[in-house]
Specification:
380 residues; alpha/beta; 5-stranded mixed beta sheet; 13 helices; 10 strands
Length: 380
């Protein structure tokens, strides 16, 4: 009996040692940018918001309100003003940008008038993107930033923080977004973004994060994309195929410490952008013509309409992958039932199946080529 107990104890000890050793190896691989062997998500598929589809154009009155409307066509006052509303959410810069993109459309609706932004002193301007954007409003579009409305007749953004709201971001249409992109990139002398989409090879960009929602297997994804696409030009049959995807480069970045210029330089070269959901996607309007974004969500958390609405008004194709365990509706209902659950779910890292990413990129590349062909036909 005693010997039997010793054997059982020895077996348990051996199993524990084996598990501990494998766990340490798996953790090491995870820290090196790999996924645990059983942690690669193989359920993610390319999805889009289609019911109803995301809105691509608006009237100003759809997303702005206030006495400025009655005063905008005045011949005695050459000013148009947009008032920023500070609340508990606006310190997080994507929520601040929900308002500023709306304000931009207001100013561009009256291009001959002096544009004003009423910005409360208490609103923090402490992120590279927000600081850079407001600076470019000043020096590119001549927007005057003041802290008191004085006798200005203002409009105020109409916005919401509901996660399923399809008007999370709004501008009048993609023409506003393209003017925003082109004029700022011109001022910052970023010529790569000006390439016509039918005259250059595809530029694939992967945007990860250093902390929550990082793409854990980004190296494996890059290798899979390189294996799938970078050899097409060397293959005569593939190069002549209508399905061939001709790729110029595949690059990876994180934005936590990137300047506004570096962020725009990266995004303006992202013909196809693969990115985990996060504030970094606030720069979607700076992607090139006929661009696409593939947004990755961890299990229990998905808000595709948030940045999807920004892509829609910017002329950027938006799709997403939900990386849960299969029952997306139930998992999201549980994961987002309250603030604590939502915070826990949204912190999770993601580990998409590399082959599924390749398949999604191939489909997005085909759609982009069709978009570019259509754009070429519309050229004078």
């Amino acid at each position: 009996m005693k010997k039997t107990g010793q054997k059982i104890l020895g077996a348990i000890t051996l199993l524990w040692f084996f598990y501990s050793s494998r766990h340490q190896q798996d953790t090491l691989r995870l820290n090196e940018g790999q996924c645990w062997k059983g942690n690669v998500n193989r359920t993610g598929i390319l999805q889009r918001i289609n019911n109803p589809p995301l809105q691509t154009s608006y009237e100003l009155a759809d997303f702005l309100e206030g006495p400025g409307f009655e005063h905008a066509n005045s011949t005695t006052d050459n000013r148009v003003a947009c008032k920023f509303i500070k609340d508990d959410h606006t310190p997080h810069f994507p929520h601040a940008m929900q308002q500023l993109y709306r304000c931009f459309s207001w100013w561009r609706a009256f291009p001959t008038k002096d544009a004003y932004l009423i910005l409360p002193n208490q609103q923090p301007i402490d992120t590279e993107f927000l600081k850079g954007f407001i600076e470019r409003m000043r020096d590119v579009f001549g927007v005057r930033v003041v802290h008191m409305r004085s006798n200005l007749k203002v409009v105020r953004p109409i916005y919401t923080y509901d996660w399923d709201e399809q008007r999370s971001f709004a501008m009048r249409n993609e023409r506003d977004a393209h003017e925003l992109r082109n004029r700022i990139l011109d001022r910052m002398k970023l010529p790569e973004a000006k390439k016509s989409c039918w005259n250059h090879k595809l530029r694939i960009r992967i945007l990860s994060r250093k902390n929550s929602r990082s793409i854990q297997n980004v190296k494996a994804i890059v290798r899979a994309l390189e294996d799938a696409f970078l050899g097409d030009d060397d293959n005569e049959n593939a190069s002549s195929s209508i399905e061939a995807v001709h790729v110029e480069s595949i690059r990876v970045a994180t934005f936590e410490e990137a300047t506004f210029r570096k962020q725009l330089e990266f995004l303006s070269q992202a013909d196809i952008l693969v990115a985990a959901h996060g504030a970094e996607l606030t720069g979607i309007p700076f992607q090139p013509q006929c661009a696409a974004v593939l947004e990755l969500f961890p299990g229990g958390y998905a808000v595709p309409a948030f940045f999807g609405s920004l892509a829609a008004v910017s002329g950027v194709s938006h799709s997403y992958m939900y990386l849960g365990h299969g029952d997306m509706e139930r998992e999201i209902r549980v994961g987002m039932r309250d603030f604590e659950s939502r915070q826990a779910a949204r912190q999770a890292n993601v580990c998409p199946d590399a082959d599924r990413i390749v398949a999604a990129v191939r489909q997005l590349a085909r759609e982009r080529r069709e978009c570019c062909d259509q754009a070429a036909l519309l050229q004078p």
